[in-house]
Amino acid sequence: MYRGAITELEESSLQEIFNTNVIAAMLLTGLATPHLAPREGAVIFVGSIHTRRAFPGASPYAATKAAVQGLTRVLAAELGEQKIRVNCLLPGAVFTEINQRAGLMDDKTALQRLEGMADLHALGRIGTTEEVAEAMAFLICAEWVTGAMIDIDGGLGLGITSDSAITSKKGDSEQ
Description:
Elements lengths: L10 H26 L5 E5 L12 H21 L5 E7 L6 H4 L5 H9 L13 H13 L7 E4 L11 H4 L2 H5 L1
Parallel strand pairs: 1-2, 2-3
Helix pairs in contact: 1-2
């Protein structure tokens, strides 16, 4: 994931992340469409909770995932006539090899970073790849769902905070 302050971003790196996350999705969907139409198939994009919560320094990644969400709705409308469903999953913190494969951190560091976000999730933990796969399986089978963005984030997108000034009980502030 390409990250950085808005004042320090490089055009070539921005183009690379847009090529990977947006343009590739568009081109692959175009190539798959003739094969999906006879089967009334489904396209499932993977977006991100970065479009629901603002993480400073993550604007390049968030921008590409927002583009994928827009693409989901447009293609759902465009391909619906061919009975191709297009949906998007928005995962929260889930331990995968993506950061390691990108050379950003090792497994231990990546897992610690994600587990440090557990209290930001309404369910109090990070997700698993199996849980994301369950949501994908649902979308593959759900023949009346298209153009949907499905949060699979354990409540991370709700914006829960552990700030006691905000989360104190009602009676606490009245005393």
